[in-house]
Amino acid sequence: MTIIILSLNTQIKLSVSTLNVQDCVDWVMSPECGGIDVFIGTVRNATKGKAVIRLEFEAYEKMAVSEMQKIAQQAIAQWPIQKISIHHRTGVLQIGEIPVIIAISAAHRDAAFDACRYIIDTLKQTVPIWKKEIFEDGEVWVAAHP
Amino acid sequence: MKINILAFGIAKDIFGGPSVSLDLANDANISNLKYLLEQQYPRLKKLATYMVAVNNEYALDGDTIHERDEIAIIPPVSGG
Fold first, then answer.
1. What percent of chain A has pLDDT over 70?
2. Which of B9, B72, B79 sits opposite A141 (nearest CB)?
3. How many CA atoms lie within 13 A of A30 on its CB side?
């Protein structure tokens, strides 16, 4: 399943299919921008020294896209940036696959870097998406317990 | 009133399924709902924290629940 929400300057996508970095870059490219900042999350092969086999992402889909849209709008209100694309995966991801891409275009780089940092940090705190780490000998929902 | 509660992530494991149904007083708020759920599913109290969403928005403890609201339990998120 794929959900996309578009506005004039934001593109939010939640998808069970492989994400494409170039799609995000192309979407935010604009003649007024002097730079594009891109954050790409990738699946790491270990957590706290323990080998991870794969990750499984689950989302409360409608709310997840609406929360991502809110974060994008907050960033646009806060920094002089042009366009934002946020893509997030759901489903099973293998090591090295991409769970999240954030691309931001701006006239000047400072705003793009700052907004990008804000978006990934806030996304990790508020967007209803959950990841389960699968190990050789078990599995755990990340951050569930103190 | 009877309400249906959606569960995600570890909440789904705790409830033993993607949703549970609960009988609530007509003027019940989020606090009342959490109390009842924690009585039935004590493992909820072991979570780092959890939120309740009403109609796709995070709700506060004092918010009143209405019969056709879409209610979801949001355990600690871990996207990105």
1. 100
2. B9
3. 19
